[in-house]
Amino acid sequence: MWVWWWLGPRSPLAAGMVDDLTAAGVACFGPSARAAQLEASKSFSKAFMDRHGIPTARWGSFTDPQLACDYIRTASFPALVVKASGLAAGKGVIVAANQDEACAAVKDIMKEKAFGSAGETVVVEELLEGEEVSCLCFSDGYSVAPMPPAQDHKRLQDGDLGPNTGGMGAYCPTPQVSQELLEQIKVKVLQKTIDGMKAEGAPYIGVLYAGLMLTKDGLRVLEFNCRFGDPECQVLMPLLKGDLYEVLLHTLDGTLASHAPVWHQESSAVTVVMASAGYPGTYEKGVQITGLSQVEAMDVQVFHAGTALKAGGMTSSGGRVLTVTAVRPSLEEALQAANQGVAAVVFPGAVYRRDIGHHAIAYLGQRRGLTYKDSGVDIAAGNRLVDMIKPLAKATARAGCNAELGGFAGVFDLKAAGFVDPILVSGTDGVGTKLKVAQACGKHDTLGQDLVAMCVNDVLAQGAEPLFFLDYFSCGSLDVGVASSVIGGVAAACRLAGCALLGGETAEMPGTYGPGEYDLAGFCVGAAERASLLPRLADIAAGDVLLGVASSGVHSNGFSLVRRVMGRAGLGYGASAPFGEPGRTLGEVLLTPTKIYSRLLLPILRSGAVKAYAHITGGGLLENIPRVLPNELAVDLDASRWSIPPVFSWLQEAGDISDEEMARTFNCGLGAVLVVATADAQGVLLQLQAQEEAWVVGSLAHKQPGTEPVVVRNLKRSLRAAGPSVDVAAVQGEGCPDNGGGSCHGDAAGEPRKRTRVAVLISGTGTNLQALIEQAKLPSSSAEIVLVISNRPGVLGLKRATLAGIQARVVDHKLYGSRAEFDATIDRVLEEFQVEAVCLAGFMRILTGPFVKKWNGKLLNIHPSLLPSFKGVNAQNQALQAGARISGCTVHFVAEVDSGAIIAQEAVPVEASDTEETLSERIRQAEHKAFPIAMELVASGAVCLGPDGRIVWKHSARN
User: Fold this and answer.
1) Residues 753 and 741: beta-carbon distance below 8 Å
2) Superfamily designation of domain 728-958
3) CATH architecture of 4-57+128-259
4) Cα–Cα distances in Å, from 618 out to 169, 433, 625, 870?
């Protein structure tokens, strides 16, 4: 009797089970561990392809995340595909929309260990465009027997929409792959791979799966799998003539070349996956399945995956529950039969696609001749977009215009709008690289207001009322959902501005923009009566008062510098805003839309009390105000007179930007500046303050020769004051000793104050360390991190310290005979650096009693739960198992393990869909808020540990 084994799953193959069974005398259908590296290591696979001249995407392999990000940003091609090199259960590939998203994927894989050890090495590849197909073959180690080409459908929903899945269906064969092309694939990819493995001493036996992209430059290999694909297997096997067992035997005895399998050439197969509601996320199990008996009579096959047979009948037990496969003479017939079979199977919430094979059906239709859509321009999509935005535009109608779209041009009636002797005023603008932020965040609805505001606020500077607006939206491939979101935002902003959306242009230009990219431009036309045009240069004089109106933040200028600062700070758009915006991400804050000032300012401008108005746009405070003034006058601004949003303080600190560059690039909190006579200033200011924040921000003076046209006093001090910090004066506790920080922030001359010397103890990546470093960088901080100690060499946290210019030491616990000896060494190093407070940030050692006693009241730890609940390890899992609805993190003085007086806590809701991983990630973000606050409270002396082991502070410190 011949004993043999057919081995398929990727992990046993990579682990060498074939080698073990072969050594025990059992013949195995499957590759050895060395051969299985084609799938188990993407880095090996790519290098193998290069060695053997197998066409693939350009790539790089990295163990250092910074080098990977440098490669992404400097490659001459779109290096936007990021892969964990090891096995990641089919989830380790991220196709990014842009460089920022690709770098974020690298950090998520390598720093945050999204895929564990599989992501210790990442492969970054060129993003290819074309048709993706799967070509499988049998191999006996010498020759290959190709199977018909198939195509999988990864997206959850029809039209290739929704999240990626393990596969929602497949069809076979693919008409896109001609017999000539299939022969090329056999020779240039499959046989070359088998020959290469044999040459490297690892003959490949089994099924080899090649994922291919058919690009305009030829075929390229995306990946190799060392097994049947799923669901490709369900469409390939029904097309096999003869017995699969015989094919396997010929593969094992090396006679495949003379016994190649035969396939049904006259038929097509389609398989449709039925998935549970919620898949690929959280889904319910145990749902009753009915209708299977009816399917059996429909000449289709049902393949079970996530099902279980129980006393009550068949129930669901997984995400992808089952597939229905149909074989028919044509692809269209096969799809129809599979869909009818799926419709007969019933279970609540079933999810499945109805368009499997739509690429092939479209391809077959294209063979009738080229269309405009074939070149990448979808006129039907453009028409759908127009239909969607027509009612939005109509809602902007105003006197003089009905805002009807669809004509060749728009018409506006100035007389109907009430003008007597009008002068037309026009303005055009865009939103700059704020587009990149919106595209990276996938948030497009606020850009419309930015676009309208940039144009309308410019027109106002001439004293004109904005009458109508036109937009220009250009892209490589029209995404109707994105475009309607953007233009819907334009329409809403036009209503805010009081102008009509009179028309626009949507330009679809294939090859001009990358995937997901688009550009915007706007055009506003306004009018003013001839006698009321601004600025009134002849009336402006020295002594006139400058009134400032608040901005909403960065508005739409300076984003190239903003993005550079983010890269320098190592922050992504999904990171929590590091400048006092609780619950908001950095991307959300940066996308705060530009303010539109027309409804606020028009009545005031028409009153005659305003001599000039400057829109603070590109060029900041220094370059925009002089644009509306006579050359002989200079501007004197006092930044202490207005409120500066904290984002500007963070930008200056994180980017090390000079005061002059801040004032020349950003609005620094002022979106508009008005010039008024001293006698009119109070009245105009009250009108402004009735609707907006506004201030007297400066005045005009005669410009002296050789002096700058704009002086901004107290900018550095005001920017620092705008930064997030603990208000020590508000929270200083009675009876707390002065730790060196106190409430003294220096006198008016900027006298420096003593800061508390802090050490941070770590064992790993140091994400909490980074949050503490960022807090200590702020000029308002009472803490100075002077030392980082790790008990493990080579960890990322040590690199963070070095990059921040902080002294770092390694005290390896493995080199000490006892905990006491180890702790004594730590203590000596702390004394050497005159440390006054210690933060334990992911320090994975239990400290001895004498050490804790010595540093009592100066030793802080953070725990991932709301203590006193869920102490010890696996706190997140404990919370989930207990059914807790709220978890979070706690910073406390150390008394013993996970106990001690609580300094700060941050709550995190527990969602019904949470796993240990998702809850841990949200708690980690909360830690980055709570720990810096706690460090600041202790360093400033606002909080201390009383003799009774309880916190001493004022009640206001808890608010």
Assistant:
1) yes
2) Formyl transferase, N-terminal domain (3.40.50.170)
3) 2-Layer Sandwich (3.30)
4) 51, 12, 11, 52
Our CA dihedral for 338, 339, 345, 351, rounded to 10 degrees, sits at 120
DSSP string, 644-701: PPHHHHHHHHHHT--HHHHHHH--TTEEEEEEE-HHHHHHHHHHHHTTS-EEEEEEEE
Architecture of the 534-724 domain: Alpha-Beta Complex (3.90)
Structure tokens at 605: 């401008």
What's the confidence (pLDDT) of residue 919? 93
Structural tokens at position 879:
């919370």
Nearest-5° Cα angle at 23, 22 to 29: 5
For the entire predicted model, the pTM comes to 0.44
Which tens digits make up the pLDDT trace of 630-647? 999 999 999 988 989 999
**The CATH number of domain 376-531, selected from 3.40.630.30, 3.10.20.740, 3.30.1330.10, 1.10.150.20:** 3.30.1330.10
Q: How far apart are CA 771 and CA 869, in angstroms?
A: 25
268-366: CATH topology? Glycinamide Ribonucleotide Synthetase; Chain A, domain 4 (3.90.600)
pLDDT digits (tens, 9 = 90+) for 18-68: 888 888 888 889 999 999 999 989 999 999 999 999 999 999 999 999 999
956 secondary structure, DSSP code: G
Coil, helix or strand at residue 810? strand
Which one of 250, 359, 745, 863 is the catalytic residue?
A: 863
Task: Indicate if 863 belongs to the active site.
Answer: yes
How far the first Cα of the chain sits from its last, in Å, is 79
With contact defined as beta carbons under 8 Å apart, do 565 and 586 qualify? no
DSSP type of residue 76 = S
